[in-house]
UniProtKB/TrEMBL annotation:
<dbReference type="GO" id="GO:0045892">
    <property type="term" value="P:negative regulation of DNA-templated transcription"/>
</dbReference>
<keyword id="KW-0805">Transcription regulation</keyword>
<dbReference type="GO" id="GO:0003677">
    <property type="term" value="F:DNA binding"/>
</dbReference>
<dbReference type="Pfam" id="PF07702">
    <property type="entry name" value="UTRA"/>
</dbReference>
<dbReference type="InterPro" id="IPR028978">
    <property type="entry name" value="Chorismate_lyase_/UTRA_dom_sf"/>
</dbReference>
<dbReference type="InterPro" id="IPR000524">
    <property type="entry name" value="Tscrpt_reg_HTH_GntR"/>
</dbReference>
<dbReference type="InterPro" id="IPR036388">
    <property type="entry name" value="WH-like_DNA-bd_sf"/>
</dbReference>
<keyword id="KW-0804">Transcription</keyword>
<dbReference type="InterPro" id="IPR011663">
    <property type="entry name" value="UTRA"/>
</dbReference>
<dbReference type="InterPro" id="IPR050679">
    <property type="entry name" value="Bact_HTH_transcr_reg"/>
</dbReference>
<protein>
    <recommendedName>
        <fullName>Trehalose operon repressor</fullName>
    </recommendedName>
</protein>
<dbReference type="InterPro" id="IPR012770">
    <property type="entry name" value="TreR"/>
</dbReference>
<dbReference type="GO" id="GO:0003700">
    <property type="term" value="F:DNA-binding transcription factor activity"/>
</dbReference>
<keyword id="KW-0238">DNA-binding</keyword>
<dbReference type="Pfam" id="PF00392">
    <property type="entry name" value="GntR"/>
</dbReference>
<feature type="domain" description="HTH gntR-type">
    <location>
        <begin position="2"/>
        <end position="70"/>
    </location>
</feature>
<keyword id="KW-0678">Repressor</keyword>
């Protein structure tokens, strides 16, 4: 016999898929669900935890459980893909807004990260990315000025990687990536449509040229309800 929390979970999934509770609306409270399904609060919590784990709801501290968009975009973890290249594969309306483009001496916190001298200069580029009218990605890029001597807002609003490869003749080769979940910063709150989300998924990347020169550090900060971070793995027998 199937455990009761799984039966409740499946019923809740069907209701969400049938738009009984549309995205961005709140599910009934745990007490209301307890009465609705004539069960214990612990059973309801198990069902809700499974819903959150499978990407149907986002638990919001002090408010309850919000139904989120189950049609997430696949965001490749491996490989080096620009937002423009990703957007070309998605059947959605996209827009990039450049909030900052500046050139200054490298900050101490980035000096070791980018393996630079204190007198070296770094481009700082801050861009928000819209998908279907919602700001869901905040990209913060830091590029070595010795490798990238010139940048404009037009280039940043289009594709930096396209400019580097097609105009400067550089070959972008590989990256080291780290994925973490963080609480939103005040900047995240200002530049993204985060609503009541209590975390963002951050991909931190160190990007290298084909001659193994490190030229870029980037933080790509994502609203958690819009993306699946996917990878392909193959077992290698020794």
């Amino acid at each position: 016999m199937q455990k009761k929390y799984l039966t409740i979970y499946q019923d809740l999934v069907l209701k969400i898929q049938d738009n009984y509770w549309p995205k961005q609306t709140m599910l009934p409270s745990e007490n209301e669900l307890t009465e609705m399904y004539a069960t214990s609060r612990e059973t309801i919590r198990k069902a809700l935890n499974l819903l959150a784990q499978d990407g149907y709801i986002q638990k919001i501290r002090g408010k309850g459980s919000m139904v989120i968009d189950i049609n997430k975009f696949d965001f490749p973890v491996t490989g080096i893909v620009s937002f423009k290249e990703l957007a070309d594969k998605l059947n959605v309306t996209t827009k990039t807004t450049v909030h900052e483009l500046s050139l200054s001496e490298v900050e101490p916190r980035l000096q070791n990260t980018l393996q630079l001298k204190r007198s070296d200069k770094v481009w700082t580029v801050v861009r928000s990315r819209d998908l279907d009218g919602e700001k869901v990605i905040l990209d913060k890029d830091f590029l070595n000025e010795k490798v990238v001597p010139t940048l404009t807002k037009e280039i940043c609003g289009d594709s930096i990687y396209s400019y580097l490869e097609n105009e400067l003749g550089l070959t972008i080769s590989f990256a080291r990536k780290e994925i973490v979940v963080e609480e939103p910063t005040e900047e995240d709150r200002q530049l993204l449509d985060l609503e009541s989300f209590s975390n963002v998924v951050v991909i931190k990347s160190l990007v290298y040229l084909d001659d193994a020169r490190l030229f870029q550090y980037t933080e790509s900060r994502h609203r958690p309800d819009k993306f699946r971070f996917v990878d392909f793995a193959r077992r290698v027998n020794e």
